[in-house]
Structures are given as C-alpha cells and as structure tokens.
Design brief:
Blueprint: E1 4-13, E2 18-27, E3 30-35, E4 43-46, E5 51-54, E6 56-61, H1 74-83, E7 86-91, H2 102-115, E8 119-124, H3 138-144, E9 148-150, H4 159-172, E10 176-178, E11 190-191, H5 194-199, E12 203-204, H6 206-223, E13 227-229, H7 235-246, E14 251-255, H8 257-261, H9 283-295, E15 300-301, H10 310-313, H11 330-339, H12 346-351, H13 355-361, E16 376-386, E17 405-415, E18 418-422, E19 425-426
Parallel strand pairs: 1-4, 1-5, 6-7, 7-8, 8-9, 9-10, 10-13, 11-12, 13-14, 14-15
Antiparallel strand pairs: 1-2, 2-3, 5-16, 16-17, 17-18, 18-19
C-alpha cells in the first residue's frame, strides 16, 4: 500500500479537537503522523487553501441493492458517496426483499466488499418485511454484523411490538432509528397548507410527524433505549426532541440538507424531485431545524439519499415516488446554507457528519488521530458550481438541488489509505 502525504491543508477534526494548519502522513492505511512533515511519500496531495477533515459519515442512505438495482447499486451509491467526501455510510433495509435476516445482510456485505469504495455499514429491519406485525430475527442479524435497527420508510404502528423492539435494541446495545410518521395521516403528497391548497393535492399535516415522534420517544424512554429520529422536518418535532433531551432521555436526531435548505415552495411548479417523505415543510419549520442544529438538539446531518429512476419521477406529481438523492450535494448544501450564512461554523458542521454519527452508531470512524483508519476528505470551501442532472455519478439524478448554485466541493477522498477520488474524479 502506497504512503500518502497531504501537505498544507487546514485540518478540522472535531473528534480530536484539532483545528490547525498541518500535514498528514498516511502509511499502511492508517494515519501515521500529523504536523510539519518533511519526509517524502509515494503520493503527495497539495491541500493548500483547502480544509482536510475525517471522511464524512452519512448514517442514512438507500443504496437499493438488492432488488432495485435500476435505481442504485452499492457500487454506484458508494461512488456517489466518495464524490461527496463521504467515506462511511449506513444503508437502510428497505431492499427487495427487505433486510430482515442474516442472509440479506451477508449479501450486502459481499457487494460492499466487491465495490471497495465507501465503508458500508448495514442496518436491519425491526419487523419482518417491514410490515409492523412481527419482530424480525434480530439476533441472527446482530450476529451477522448489523449496527442499527430501523423500519425506515415505515413507522412501526403496533405500539406493543415497538416497545419490545426498544427492549431488544437496548439488550443488543444498538440504536433504533425511527421514521416518525403516522401512516394514516401521512398519505398525502406535500406539506398540508398553502402549497397543497394551491396545487390541489392532499397534504401531509405536521401532526403526522409530531405525534409519531412523541410516541416513539415515550416508548424508548420506558425501555431506557437509545432512539434516533431520522430526517426531522417539523418545528414541533424539534421541540419534542429538545423537551425529552432535557429530561435525560437517550434521544438523538438528524436533519437532511433539503429540510434545512428548502421549503414546500419548491413544489409549486410540480417538481417531483422535491417530493419526499417527510415532505418539505414551511419557512418556520426550516428555521426551527436550523435552530435545532445550532443548539445541539439535532446532532447529525444525514442525506436520506433516495434514488429513483427518471421514468418514475417523470410522471404527475401525485404518482411520483418520494425521495431525493443527496450524497454528492450534501457538503455543498451544508456549506452554502449553514456555514456561509453563519448559522454554523465549519467546525460545528463537520462535527455533525463525523464525531456525532460515529458516537451514535458506535463505529470507530470520524477522526484523524494517529493510528486511525485513513479515511480523509479534502474540500475546497470556495468552489462554486451549478447542480446539473447530467453531472451526477449516482445511477439516478432526482436531486432537489438541480438548478441551484452551491459553494464548496470535495476535491480528494481517501478511504483506508487508498485514494478513491483525486482532483474531483472518482478513480
């Protein structure tokens, strides 16, 4: 394995409280030295004027394999992550068939090893087939290596089953990731309000998410389990998480870039790339999410990367599937809508995609200490670019940010001491 010397970069590593100008030497896939380094290496990267961070962690992606390879595969999804400076991901289990047993976990692990790009961590279903009727075989999936439980895409609507799931998650020391959405209230297409009225479409009320968040946290509290609220989108949801945090409940939450950057106004032209679940909400909700990111109520930023075919999105709004891709635009959206607006410092923003998700998922990633795996991302925070559908490396191009000008872009990505992207080109 070749040695790599990263020179002249500004290192930002919240996990190890590092924020300084320094060089990094990588040997045998590990961080070997940090400081002013004069020795030579097999490969050198000049990071002058750029920031050098631990590889980002995205704890919420849909790579669609097996079963929906026409939308994305573990290989194409991994490459799209690498392009965004994301070196570790947690895949969701709504595959076909769902990842509710050890065999399905093993299939994804084999695909990930063959792809050899991003580090792939796998979550397992809470219930069999994600039907909410009976617990999945959790023990065999834990033995096979899952690191989280979730029925993402579905809220477990049977409270008795859900309460037992929290107990098992606590026994296995795994976080349980929640898609908080009351199914009977979440059947609409856009946020319920002015936009849904103008479009003549059935809306999804805030209560669909708010009630589910309260229900899930209360049940997790009774089991003393670790609960993580996925893709939080409402002001009420943020307030609920903050309330229970202050009571000492082990609850964490994430926000997706589209929910802190955009509102339901994006849907007024029937742009199906802006149809997602939970839906884009109001300006008030967006501001509440940003405030939650600022005060620590929301510890994590994750993409909820959800690829869909062009043919699936090129239909009437009410018929289109929900979801937007996000791995390739994530850092840029964070930098544009949070850092450049001074809502968060760059250190705070990086923390929400390195230190914090690694802590919640209990994985040894997200840092650049000597001896750590050499997962590194190098960003040009001043690079300006226009998001175009034809430029995505993902197999799908259903991005809510198409046509937006963003600032900041990943230039180099290293995984396990191997350069996977150099000068913005995935190798």
């Amino acid at each position: 394995m070749k040695s790599i010397l990263i020179k002249n970069g500004h290192i930002i590593d919240p996990k190890n409280n590092v924020n300084t100008q320094a060089d990094i030497l990588i040997k045998d896939g590990k961080i070997a030295k940090i400081g002013k380094i004069s020795e030579r290496a097999d490969q050198e990267i000049d990071a002058k004027g750029m920031i050098v961070t631990p590889g980002l962690i995205d704890m919420h992606v849909h790579f669609r394999e097996p079963g929906f390879e026409g939308k994305e595969t573990i290989l194409t999804g991994s490459k799209s992550a690498i392009r965004g400076g994301i070196t570790s991901v947690l895949t969701m289990p709504n595959t076909n068939p769902p990842t509710d047993n050890a065999i399905m976990v093993a299939i994804q692990q084999q695909k990930a090893n063959k792809a050899n790009y991003a580090n792939i961590f796998i979550s397992g279903c809470i219930t069999q087939g994600q039907k909410g009727e009976r617990l999945a075989n959790l023990t065999e999936m834990v033995d096979q290596g899952i690191i989280a439980l979730t029925d993402d895409g579905h809220d477990v609507f049977d409270e008795f089953i859900l309460k037992n799931a929290y107990k098992y998650a606590n026994d296995y020391n795994l976080p349980l990731l929640v898609h908080a959405e009351i199914p009977v209230l979440g059947k609409g297409h856009v946020n319920e309000g002015e936009v849904s009225f103008k479009l003549g479409l059935e809306g999804i009320p805030h209560s669909a998410e708010d009630i589910a968040i309260y229900k899930n946290i209360i049940l997790a509290q009774e089991a003393d389990a670790q609960i993580h609220i996925g893709h939080i989108a409402t002001k009420g949801g943020v307030e609920a998480v903050k309330f229970f945090k202050e009571k000492g409940v082990k609850v964490s939450a994430e926000a997706a870039p589209h929910h802190f950057a955009l509102t339901d106004q994006e849907c007024l032209d029937f742009n199906t790339n802006c149809k997602m679940y939970p839906p884009l909400r109001t300006e008030e909700d967006k501001k509440a999410i940003i405030k939650g990111l600022q005060d620590g109520t929301i510890e994590v930023i994750a993409t909820d990367h959800a690829p869909h075919k062009k043919s699936e999105k090129n239909v009437p709004f009410q018929d289109a599937p929900r979801g937007t891709i996000g791995t390739e635009t994530c850092f840029s959206a964070i930098n544009t809508y949070l850092v450049k607006t001074k809502a968060l410092s760059i250190e705070e923003a990086i923390c929400k995609m390195t230190k914090n998700p690694s802590k919640i998922l209990k994985i040894n990633k997200g840092g650049l200490a000597i001896g750590d795996d050499a997962d590194v991302a190098i960003f040009d925070t001043e690079a300006e670019w226009l998001v175009k559908k034809e430029d995505f490396i993902s197999k799908s191009c259903n991005s809510a940010f198409i046509g937006k000008s963003l600032q900041g872009k990943c230039v180099h990505t290293i995984v396990g001491g191997e350069i996977k992207m150099q000068n913005s080109k995935v190798i």
